[in-house]
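Posting here for the record, re: magnesium ion.
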Amino acid sequence: MSIALHGIGVAKGIAIGKAHILVRDQLEISEYCVARELVEDEVRRLDEATVLARQQLRAIREHIPRSTAPDIAAFIDTHVLMLEDTALSQEPARLIRERRCNAEWALRLQRDALVAVFEEMDDPYLRTRKDDVDHVVHRIQRILQNQGPLRHEVPDSRLAGYIIVADDLTPADTVVMQHHGIAAFVTEYGGATSHTAILARSLGIPGIVALHQARRYVREDDVLIVDGGKGVVVLDPDARTLEYYQGLQRQERADLAELGKLKGAPARTEDGIAVILEANIELPKDFETVLTVGATGVGLYRTEYLYMNRPEPPDEGEHFEVYADVLRLLESLPITIRTLDIGADKEMDGHARPGAANPALGLRAVRLCLKEPGLLFLPQLRAILRASALGPVRLLIPMLASLQELHQVLAIIEGIRQELRAASIPFDPNMPIGGMIEVPAAAVCADLFARELDFLSIGTNDLIQYTMAIDRVNDEVSYLYDPLNLGVLRLIKTTIDAAARCHIPVAMCGEMAGDLRYVRLLLGLGLREFSVHPATLLEVKRIVNSTSCGAVATLAAELLNSRSQSEAQELLIAINGCVV
Ligand code: PEP
Ligand code: MG
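Prediction output follows.
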């Protein structure tokens, strides 16, 4: 009889195969006392195990196919670096000497201390980094206890096509799994933001995490279906279920091949309206993907990552070099550089603002930049202006709430232009300046902003949080984070219409733009520029190219007046079914 088990789907795709249960034996770690004269031998035992662990990881790294993105290897490098860090290379040795305990116990103590630090962190992404500590410590402890490498780490083509069911997996496991052609994985623990999940998405291995007690239900060689998109595992599927999923799998493969063909195709609706599809980018290394998916430019470059993990903010020279590099990489595609948006959930070293009870409503983005212009704002603005002499640069101001803020920023920019002119430093005097519409006050007054700006960009991530009065990082109110809320949709419509009346472009760069459920609705509301994560750009293009704006516009207008959530949902279904 088929049984369906549910976890969190972290990497989409359907896999059908036999289960291989990974028994990552719980190592029994106990403390024992080491005789004084044997303490140095114990330290040596630890050192040798660490060296071996490093060799194992390097061997895994060498198995990574050359075609794999460089950041995949970086995950393994992170573990190698952890092994070399004094926290793991010297601190356990100190504990052995101080407590005269065995190497396994010293490692365990140090692991507990490091994990406690990670668990204290507010950032959910950083909290999951404790898994990396566990993976590295576990590897050394296996060696100390003379346990061989795990079966799937041994190059073994017999595991090709298998679905791995494990308590948890390391990024190294995931890379090796791809190398051996493993079809999918299911783990009992782990979160959607773990490195393993991120890797699985990049490597294209369907994956499900947090399927508690999976190993209680699944036995070795059981036939499984993994639907990584939905987070469902079907155990022991009957013939009809199997046939159904085989059909989905065929469909998925055909889909992927079709999608690739869209790279060079223009984004144009069925009724001939050209749509601009750009990419959102965070780190300079992400820029290559902009070209590979055929984006027409970068609609949002979040520069705050340049300011993070360092004691001092970057100076003008550093900003300029980064932007010049990026322009080179983009091969003259236009780029929208957003000025610093730090604060709230994105903190900069030394700039955390203790005592701010609601940091999302506090000194963030342009507010902070205007408060500390010399340190944070001027160097960046000068560099962006200078970079505009090298290629098509647009400047985007985040989190505008009032016209006064805009006027202050425009006055600062004008001052910089005069300085650059006086010093004969080249810049583009017509560099477009745009504003993010992500605070409801700005959306309501979008017409006033549109009169003074060259373009607008709707940041739905914040617009939704501020319109719905919810903190976007607070799980307890995430059910209210609804792009279909009429208040949100009307603000979006107001902004699109205001830009149209002032004949300036308006884009959307929040996550809603890349959410496939809303692409047609947004087209119906009049949006013609989308800036999305590169991984979803081609899927967005496919929807755009199969939509008739005329057909969806009427339904979108009706949706703005729907009297209930269910009516809005029904209209959305009609819009999405509205293929011409
Ligand atoms: C937004 O708010 O939608 C946006 C794109 O900006 P960020 O997610 O960086 O706040
Ligand atoms: Mg924002």
